[in-house]
Amino acid sequence: MPDSQITPQCATDREIRSQPALWQLLATEKYNELRAIQEWVQQLDITEVWFTGAGTSAYIGDILATALSASHKVTFRSISSTDLVSAPDLYITQSVNPLIVSFGRSGNSSESVGVLNILDQWLPTAPRLNITCNPQSELAKRIHQHDRQRVLVLPAHDKGFAMTASFSCMVLSAAVVFDLKHKDTQQTLTRLSQRASALITTTDSWVASQSLPSRVVFLGSGSLKFAAREAALKVMELTAGKIPCVWDSPLGFRHGPKSFIDNATHVIVFESNNHHTRLYDQDLAEEIKFQFPHNPLTVVSGSHTASLSVDEELPDHWNSVLFLLVAQLLAVELSIQLQLNVDDPFAGSNTLTRVVAGVKLHPLHNL
Question: What is the CATH code of the structural domain delimited by 11-184?
Fold first, then answer.
């Protein structure tokens, strides 16, 4: 059994473990503000909502847009800021007037600023909601039309390299604002907070038993496909790319990506709470177990019998923060086993930095 070396000096670990308290804070101190923003959104004359952000912040939109579009009158789209900045003409037309929701932990990345520049020039009257964790950022402070813009600043400005608590707080805040079909969101936040506290305990025991894999695969269906994407990114970030990861849906994984598995690959399946979808998740898990009987396989599920159990009743996009809690704790443990600086895995290499910088923003031309 690996000897865990997590210490109180690891900001990333502290931030991961702070999430139950932060989610409860969303249910108490921030909840009225979230509901006020929800009411403002409902008054807007819009037919589309665009979620935008870069990297982990983009995956927030992927998770939510996948889950919400089928059950709401408004169309939800996830358009990463990296795509919007580099090819704005593919998305912006004179006839479109969406609500643009920008996610950003720092709120100061080159792409966050680039999106604001594009909106100022090409969609100046489109409503905006900026969700950030930095009150001094461009996303928080750059407001031109107070009746058409709102800013939500969240108390989860991670100090570590990887986005952890900031990610989950942005997911849950946006879910409260936009998931109008889900009732009792305040109670759900409290429920998730309580479930997370229990899950941390069981996950600690699980990660302590994990040996260093050669590769990791994360699989999930629907919105959990994009939770799997974020999980894979967390492991690659905190291991400085020393443990390659891929992500996919259970059905999609069979169509070529399964070739990624070697004899020391750890496969982790995020099992859906949707009964029909879960059948496909379970089929793939059984197939992997049969074909690679000596490889580690972990199924994270809403089932009471699961070794790592999320909430058995909540929709997958709400549960996504619990699935990611497991991946975050695993990523920290693997980083420690590799003897890396968990809070700055790329220290000394300049390969990646906590806030992406140095991106040249090129001048905009007319549509």
Answer: 3.40.50.10490
**What Cα–Cα distance (Å) separates residue 40 from each residue in 36, 43, 78, 125, 129?**
6, 5, 21, 16, 10
Name the superfamily (CATH) of residues 187-337: Glucose-6-phosphate isomerase like protein; domain 1 (3.40.50.10490)
Please choose, from the candidates 141, 149, 121, 168, the residue with its C-alpha nearest in 3D space to the C-alpha of residue 22: 168
Task: Report how far residue 18's alpha carbon sits from residue 165's, in angstroms, rounded to the nearest whole number.
Answer: 7
pLDDT at 42: 94
**What is the reported pLDDT for 71?**
74
Helix axes 56-68, 316-337, angle to 10 degrees: 150
pTM above 0.85, yes or no: yes
The closest alpha carbon to 298, from 327, 318, 274, belongs to 327
Question: Using CB atoms within 10 A of its CB, is residue 94 exposed (0-12), middle (13-18) or buried (19+)?
Answer: exposed
Residue 38's pLDDT is what? 97
Domain ranges of the chain: 11-184, 187-337
Contact in structure between 20 and 196 (CB atoms under 8 Å): yes
